[in-house]
Amino acid sequence: MANKNTFFLLLTILILNVLKGYAMASNDSSNELEEMKAVPFDYYQLVLQWQPATCSNLTCLKPWSSRFSINGLWAGSYSGSIGRCSGSEFLQQNISSIRREQDEDWPSLVVIGSNPAVWGEEWDLHGTCFETPTFQISDYFRLALYLFWKSDVLQALEKYGMEPADGRRYLAPDFESVLNVSFGKPALRCSRNVKYNLQYQLAEVGLCFDKCLRHINCPSQYSAANGCPRNQFIL
Ligand SMILES: *[C@@H]1O[C@H](CO)[C@@H](O)[C@H](O)[C@H]1NC(C)=O
Ligand SMILES: *[C@@H]1O[C@H](CO)[C@@H](O)[C@H](O)[C@H]1NC(C)=O
Ligand SMILES: *[C@@H]1O[C@H](CO)[C@@H](O)[C@H](O)[C@H]1NC(C)=O
Ligand SMILES: *[C@@H]1O[C@H](CO)[C@@H](O)[C@H](O)[C@H]1NC(C)=O
């Protein structure tokens, strides 16, 4: 954990760079940064994976537990969806300094062996949307880790007596409002789980952040009913 503190210091520097980058870019549309940004985006969506939903349904090939881990960090637009972005090629060396944190908090549970292939896909699909000369591959992954660590969803649930337990049912509005208080309106996604007779289980939680990295309500294009039943679901 001492390690994480050092890490936070480094992240603070990263975050300041992120904010400085936007401040500069927003002055002048002919600014080099603005021009080189692949796609204009309005907000970040951190997508968390609920490990039990994946692993009690599919065969996971890595250790898992009742916790959230990172699925991805996506670029969001208020006006609709952001198309496919493109950018630099992902190399393992780009994230060698955060490899341990990546393995721990961003595992690819259903894939044998190393995770980088999955991180590379995430970079290609989503990370490239954020790429600028000052926001490179390692910045993308460090930003996702930073947002993940500052958003402890399980702790927020426990604070309101909503500890996860195998097969426990949650009322969708209660679940949403507990997260809403701590993080702004979440984007919840459920899927049917074979373990529970194909009943709906929470699979993903999306949390949204503005460009100053403050929690914001996820736009209504992600309504609570986005794959989750309105009444109740399993955690
Ligand atoms: C952008 O504007 C701010 C305030 O107007 C100024 O301090 C800053 O130097 C400007 N940056 C660039 C790159 O022009
Ligand atoms: C669980 O399996 C069902 C049926 O194969 C599938 O539709 C669903 O998407 C899976 N859920 C997850 C979280 O993988
Ligand atoms: C990725 O790593 C390579 C090798 O260290 C480096 O040349 C390249 O600039 C890095 N790319 C990005 C976008 O971070
Ligand atoms: C979420 O919180 C905001 C205030 O922070 C409130 O206006 C909104 O109604 C809440 N939404 C839900 C679904 O609880």
From TrEMBL:
Residues 1-25 form the signal peptide. Gene3D superfamilies: Ribonuclease T2-like. SUPFAM superfamilies: Ribonuclease Rh-like (SSF55895). Pfam families: Ribonuclease_T2. One of its GO terms (molecular function) is RNA binding. Belongs to the RNase T2 family. One of its GO terms (biological process) is RNA catabolic process. It comes from Cucurbita maxima (Pumpkin). Coiled coil: none annotated. It comes from the Eukaryota. Keywords: Signal. InterPro entries: RNase_T2-like, RNase_T2-like_sf. One of its GO terms (cellular component) is extracellular region. The lineage of its organism: Eukaryota, Viridiplantae, Streptophyta, Embryophyta, Tracheophyta. This is Ribonuclease DdI-like.
